[in-house]
Amino acid sequence: MELTAEAPADDLPVGRQDTDGMAVASFVLGLLGLLVLNIVLGPVAIALASVALWRGTARRGRALLGLGLGVADLVVLGVLMSLNASVSWSFAG
Questions:
Q1: Of 2, 24, 38, 51, which is least surrounded by CB within 10 A?
Q2: DSSP letter, residue 56
């Protein structure tokens, strides 16, 4: 009797699970950062996406989107701060 063991999805190496979670978190935080707390969520999304890509995540597309959204957060913050001529911004003007 020969046993063959296939690893289910839950038995992925811990590093791979962590990087997949980081990729998804960077995407979500980058998307949320477009609306609120750009100055905090943008750099966090960039950092999480960079670490996930460096460690070789299976969700490479999501990590790249998180990286792009993190950069977009900082660009939006810079544009709105320059229009308001202050460190904070609001839609009310």
A1: 2
A2: T
pLDDT over threshold 90, residue 67:
yes
Cα 73 to Cα 1, 66, 88: the distances in Å are: 58, 10, 14
Write out pLDDT tens, residues 37-54.
888 999 999 999 999 999
Whether the full predicted model's pTM is greater than 0.90, yes or no, is no
Cα 93 from Cα 77, distance rounded (Å):
14
Distance CA 70, CA 58 (A): 20
Interatomic CA distance for residues 50 and 48, integer angstroms: 5
Question: Tokens 């707390």 — which residue?
Answer: 37
